[in-house]
Specification:
- The chain is mainly α.
- The chain has one domain.
- It contains 14 helices and no strands.
- The chain starts with a helix and ends with a helix.
Length: about 325
């Protein structure tokens, strides 16, 4: 009983922390969707699309995916006549930078600066698009969509628009609670049964390669499976209870910024008729390389500071 109570309280506390970021941003973006602002942004981005191998109308799913979520982007893709290569480029970019405002704001609660998180995600998205456009000469056949259907809702008046935003934000918080609370209860059970140490030990080679300690492993697993927001929630709780260091928090955030929800985000694009294995492999490879490099830089900086201190003494 105490285990369930502790897990429930942890889940509620984490949900509250995340909701303070997610709720207002969701409402704001939903309202902006019905103003000239998003079309204006799309109009600005259209001339830039050719540099990453995309037609001008591809700015629509990019903007919707970054400001809203990956599902809104897929709905927009379904309405466009694109090639397989175009869809693959969009999928790769969106896998790095979708839901940019909410997820980046949540991740910023872990200590990494918001501009750094956004810079990493946008930078990886643009770099991946440039590489695909430069080196992949195939994929010129029309994309064949299936299984996914798009839907649109016509809203009349600001009261309906605001109500729709509030409903979406509330539903988003409810969905987070339905995932985060069971995760926290499950983690509490693992702690009380002393299984958490065993799991951390199994995953320790991977976390050590990335420059992190064993107590970060469960956080990485949660972020990879459930997403950046949920992984951030688990990480916040780990920071409170398990003594996760600032360095490990930083490295774990870098890793999850690049590869969060990598399985779910990959499977989502299967109905669009594109090769999804490269999506999975590229994201995991980039996340691993980027985190290892940051960890190496961090260790060298600490060693330099240590050597300097000893010399001065």
């Amino acid at each position: 009983m105490n285990t369930l109570k502790s897990g429930l309280l942890s889940g509620l506390r984490t949900t509250w922390e995340l909701s303070k970021v997610i709720f207002p941003i969701t409402v704001l973006v939903k309202v902006l969707q019905h103003t000239p602002i998003l079309p204006w942004i799309i109009q600005i981005l259209t001339p830039m699309m050719k540099w990453i191998g995309l037609p001008g109308e591809a700015a629509i799913p990019l903007v919707l995916g970054n400001f809203l979520n990956i599902y809104a982007a897929i709905g927009a893709i379904l309405s466009l006549d694109l090639s397989v290569k175009h869809v693959f480029i969009l999928a790769m970019m969106l896998s790095f930078s979708h839901n940019l405002l909410i997820e980046s704001s949540v991740a910023a609660k872990l200590g990494l600066k918001l501009r750094v998180i956004i810079g990493i995600r946008i930078g990886l998205a643009i770099m991946s698009a440039l590489v695909i456009n430069l080196f992949w000469q195939g994929g010129n056949e029309p994309a064949q969509y299936g299984l996914v259907s798009s839907s649109s809702q016509v809203l009349n008046g600001w009261d309906q628009i605001l109500w729709n935003g509030l409903q979406s934000a509330s539903l988003g918080i409810l969905q987070i609670a339905m995932i985060v609370i069971p995760i926290m209860i499950f983690i509490q059970i693992l702690k009380d049964l002393s299984w958490l140490q065993i799991i951390s030990h199994w995953l320790s080679p991977a976390t050590c390669f990335l420059g992190m300690k064993e107590n970060t492993s469960l956080t990485l697993a949660a972020g990879l499976a459930f997403g950046l927001a949920y992984g951030a929630g688990v990480m916040l709780e780990s920071y409170r209870e398990d003594g996760v260091s600032q360095k490990d928090m930083y490295l774990a955030t870098v890793f999850l910024v690049s590869s969060h929800a990598v399985v779910e985000d990959t499977l989502i694009f299967i109905p669009l008729g594109i090769p999804v294995w490269p999506l999975l492999l590229v994201r995991l490879s980039i996340a691993t390389l980027l985190t290892a490099l940051v960890g190496l830089f961090w260790n060298k900086r600490d060693q330099h500071a240590y050597d300097k201190e000893n010399i001065s003494c």
